[in-house]
Design brief:
Aminopeptidase, single chain, 4 helices, globular, 11 strands, 228 residues, alpha+beta
């Protein structure tokens, strides 16, 4: 499985050419996800000036992220911020006591999924991001209070993402249990899970290391907006 790890230096690019090809729009050398799915664009980093045709993909005032290496931007684009993330992988099954009732989330929970991620981690999850993979959650009195799922997926590799817990329900190891669910499901299928978290988010990093994730590299999420 580890022979695929080089793809994690440009995960969205490989995802858009492999498992997530059905969500891809764009031209040779430059792709993005459909607007309703997730705000990620990606380029073939072997091409010089690979972002020069962004106007073919991105609408005015639309923002998006590039994950990994950057290239020179056209004049009508602005970098809003660069987020330095730690990329981590997990290659061993997580052994953890699962005390919560974990359910797979479906369309009927879509509004609650969007609301919870917007509350806890705004800006990264769209209403149809759930279509990228399987998502799991924990309910309290029929209200979604914690979730985690699969975002970028490529052959042999799946990103664990949207690991969020409502602030009123923290401290119950819900995040650990949900991450274990996603990780073990993928490992059982011969797929290596990976994730991204802020490089200074020490609390999250400690949790992921406790679960068995290993640090791979620092990778940037660059948020960009088209001005006109």
């Amino acid at each position: 499985m580890t022979e695929q790890l080089y793809k994690l230096d440009n995960p969205a690019w490989y995802g858009l050419h492999e498992t997530h090809k059905k969500f891809a729009i764009g031209i040779d050398g430059l792709k993005c996800y459909q607007q309703n799915i997730v705000a990620f664009a990606a380029w073939d980093t072997s091409i010089n000036n690979g972002l020069k045709h962004l106007d073919n993909l991105i609408e005015p005032n639309e923002f998006f992220f590039i994950v990994g290496e950057m290239s020179e931007l056209p004049a009508n684009y602005l970098i809003e911020r660069t987020i330095n993330c730690l990329q981590m992988i997990c290659t061993a099954e997580i052994t953890l006591n699962i005390s919560a009732k974990i359910i797979q989330l479906h369309e009927k929970e879509a509004d609650q999924m969007a609301a919870l991620t917007q509350l806890v981690m705004p800006g990264y999850y769209k209403h149809d991001t759930r279509l990228m993979g399987d998502y799991y959650g924990i309910l309290d009195d029929n209200e979604l209070v914690a979730m985690a799922g699969e975002r970028i997926r490529l052959n042999g590799l799946t990103e664990v993402s949207a690991v969020v817990t409502h602030p009123a329900f923290t401290g119950r190891t819900y995040a650990q249990q949900l991450v274990a669910q996603v990780v073990n499901k993928n490992l059982g299928a011969g797929i290596i899970p990976f994730l991204h978290t802020g490089q200074n988010n020490l609390r999250a990093i400690r949790m992921y290391e406790y679960l068995g994730f290993k640090k791979r590299r620092i990778i940037n999420f660059t948020k960009i907006i088209r001005l006109n």
